[in-house]
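ESCALATION

Customer reports they have been waiting on this structure for their group meeting. Please prioritize. Original submission:
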Amino acid sequence: MLPELAISSHAGTLASDYDLFVSEDMTDAAALDWLGQAYDAYAEAGRPFVMLSHPRIIAEHAHVLHAFVDYVRRTGGTFATLDAWTAEIQEPVQAPIVGLWVDLSFEEVDPETLVSDAMSLGVTDVFLSILDPAGIDYISTDDGGSSNGKAGLIIERIQQAGMKAHAWIAVNSNSALAGEHPELAMVSDNGQRSDQWISPSNETARAFILGEVRSILGAYHFDGLHLDYIRYPGLAYDFSDSALARFSSATGIEVRDVGQLQTDDYVAWTDWRSEEISGLVEDIRRVAVEVAGPDIELSAALIGNAAVNYRSREDYGQDYGLLARHLDLILPMAYYPLEGRDPSWVERTLYATRWQVGDTRVATGLASFNQPDDWEVGAEDMREAMSYALSYTDGVSFYPYSGLFGRRDAVSSVGADVLDAVHAALALRAVSKGMIGAFPVKASSVLGGAAVFLAVAGLVLAATGRRRAASLPRMMTEEQTREVLAVPWRMDARKCQTGTIDGETCMRVSRLLRRTKPEGLERARQLVLLNHLECKSISGHCSRADLDRIGLSQPLKQAMQAGLVEDAGRGLTPTAAGRNEIRSAREAGFDLDYGSFLLERMNETLSAECMICGADNAFHFFWPSFECKECGNLCSVEECENIRIYLPSDSFRNEAIEDVGRAYAHA
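Update from on-call: job pushed to the front of the queue and completed.
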């Protein structure tokens, strides 16, 4: 054991003895069995297994720790500090993946020009759109004179030039199918069917997806199948009958109403959504191997923020650890401009990715286009992002091809200096004998056994090894546990998330609210507003009526008077000064996670039963007691054992608060 390891921002934890012996109230035998199963699953996936231990708690269960250490040693595991583990696997990849996303839905692609451009950059993999989100199949329409008709020639020329050709398909986004067969569409929490997204839980929709995989891989000899839009559009989906039925069947939980899945059964619901997406990927892999053989490479483009922020993971149902079991290559879309971040966010995203996916290969997805009203990719930023990509992962891929090489319009294409920066970074990587980044971690582990990290105040149990399909019991995600242990209020936030708390938790939260000065809440409201409008200016329209519904109309007036927000005719959006305000808050370390936690509590209604007559009574945080509406008894909130939290019914407000977590998650 090496007890000197400090618990740092990059020492993500799997669980803790508090979870095992206090939260879950496990017996010693059950805890040892859980640790053994979890360790095996992580070791076989090539992932570090990490556990934080409190000396007082583990002292009471020392024989469990000793038995677990003996088990790890018997199975070939080793113990080391995190730094030692990082150093052992930081050898550079000598031949990095260099990929291009070629989007036929808007790019007029000349095969010869594409091949020439790709070869000049040393491209190894081309992801060619074959089934796009509109439902257009570029294989079936391969007889015309447009880009659709050139798919076959493009594939042929790519492979003749020695590059891999991947069939890039949109999985759950298909507007044509959703329009023609609305019964296959996802359903929102307000009962509306999507006109874009098809349900992964609908057997007919699932059969359609697998049928498309068979058809596409049977039409041409592809080197790989690349999955995109393999997710939900957000937490508001999918509440279709088929989804609710599959959830009940898998969990044994009877669904009485949608609200229960957003409160009491929220954790079970969001975990199941991730498993549903992972299960679909598993089915796709099975079909792909049947049609194209075992050498077909299965990859997926995933939401970058889902690697860093567990809230984003819950939103989209993309659990990197689960998906890695079925994928050969993962491409986190680390589009830092789209997230409103600077390039350093790429580093956090990639470290979190590497930690979760073990020995699965990773290539970093970078944006190579400008959004003139919102951002421009600069050469210096690209150099920095490339340094992280080539340090932490097996390579890099650019979206879109046309934007990187100036084949789009001049406004949305990046500058020639950006392409020069990419060339220079790849050339440097080819001749470098060392790594470029600060905490380099090679994608494919070469350790023969498993490594376990131990630390005082924290048993950091980390494992690497070979991967196989295995079921890992999950109590708390790595991100959740790390955050909870780092900041005490996060444990209460996690409890509030479940929709039920006890009286002591309620009073702790109330004390936090009382200690917060009004100007602190006003500042949080302003930043929530600006961040939400910034997200909406990229993804959709936001009106004054929307903001009235989420209680941000007054902050909006103040922000507009201060010149931080404008109505540019296409909806409300932050001005340059407003975006600077957000950026300054991030740089100053303003904790928007905490701010959103407080704002959520301010808008919630609580309910508890009277301890005398059992009547249900509504009240709010701040209240130390309440008078029963039936018997008049004065009930102490702190003595209540079961307090239910009711969220505001308007999901738009919840989306606004969720945006804070997406934009301000700290790795």
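Sent to customer with the following note: The chain has a mean pLDDT of 79.
Escalation resolved.
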